[in-house]
Design goal:
Elements lengths: L2 H4 L3 E7 L6 E6 L2 E5 L5 H10 L7 E5 L5 H4 L2 H6 L5 E4 H9 L11 E4 L5 E3 L2 E7 L8 E6 L4 E5 L7 H7 L4 E5 L4 H6 L4 H8 L7 H11 L6 E5 L8 H15 L8 E4 L9 E3 L1
């Protein structure tokens, strides 16, 4: 692949995924962006180096919402590395109200508004609201010259606004947080189980699978399943639910299409998608 063609590819890597920390690199041969920085800056730098990238490769940071597993290193990225951080006003308020990130540099914040496109890292990006218990929580629809990617990591339901952007994308990073049986029989107290199941909580394997089965298109080439629960899910459970739901719905996908769960706290390979 030559340099010119690789500029129009998506490069995707999960540096970490799950309730202990989330960080995703999305780029091309010319650089890229980080979506969330919920792990240590040291670990981010190490993981980037392992895939042949550096902090210089990172042109911007996008934040989905202000829970600590998505913002842990925001202060370092604004103060030490001087990277612009794109976040809604509600998310930035949550960052400044958190004792671990309250020193994040205000001048590096770029305020974004859902449904209003902006440019970052060479991509055209649109934030869209998601149903989660954090003020100003969003997903992102990210476009290059000929394809688009959508990421929604924490959401209790896929409402019409989120579905609009998810259904437009050729590549999805979509939450598949918990297996319903594992959650019911697991170690969590009932109040926490209710929060996870709620419309402001997290997406179950079945909810994720139902959405994919009912909205699959031939131009949807890659789905990455993200934010799997440590205690209430496994990569095998997510894929079992996907296969069973697709079979029930009679949903067929092309041999070239790919569905891949990202493991918790483990860097994925660098995927390059033309």
């Amino acid at each position: 692949m030559d340099l010119f063609s690789s500029l129009y590819s998506f490069e995707i890597c999960s540096l970490s995924s799950g309730s202990s920390g989330n960080c995703y690199y999305i780029g091309n041969a010319d650089g890229g962006i980080l979506v969330d920085v919920g792990i240590s800056a040291k670990r981010i730098i190490k993981s980037l180096k392992e895939i042949g990238k550096s902090l210089e490769s990172v042109k911007a940071v996008l934040i989905t919402h202000s829970h600590i597993d998505h913002i842990r290193s925001v202060e370092a990225f604004t103060r030490t590395f001087r990277k612009p951080v794109y976040a809604t006003a509600g998310t930035w308020q949550g960052i400044r109200n958190n004792r671990f990130t309250m020193q994040a540099l205000e001048s590096m914040h770029v305020s974004i508004i859902p449904d209003a496109p902006f440019m970052a890292g060479g991509f055209s990006i649109t934030a869209f609201p998601v149903s989660h218990d954090a003020n100003g929580a969003v997903g992102f629809h990210i476009q290059n010259s000929h394809k688009s990617l959508a990421i929604a990591t924490d959401l209790g339901i896929i409402d019409d606004r989120a579905a609009h952007f998810l259904k437009r994308a050729n590549i999805l990073l979509l939450e598949s947080n918990y297996d319903e049986e594992m959650l019911e029989n697991g170690p969590y107290p009932e109040r926490l189980r209710q929060r996870i199941r709620s419309s402001l909580g997290h997406l179950s394997n079945k909810q994720c699978a139902d959405f994919l089965a009912s909205s699959w298109r031939d131009d949807l080439s890659h789905v990455f399943l993200v934010h799997l629960s440590e205690h209430n899910n496994t990569p095998e459970k997510t894929m079992e639910t996907i296969h069973a739901t697709f079979a029930e719905n009679g949903t067929l996908i092309t041999e070239s299409a790919s569905i891949h769960p990202f493991e918790r706290e483990k860097r994925s390979p660098l995927f390059r998608i033309d």
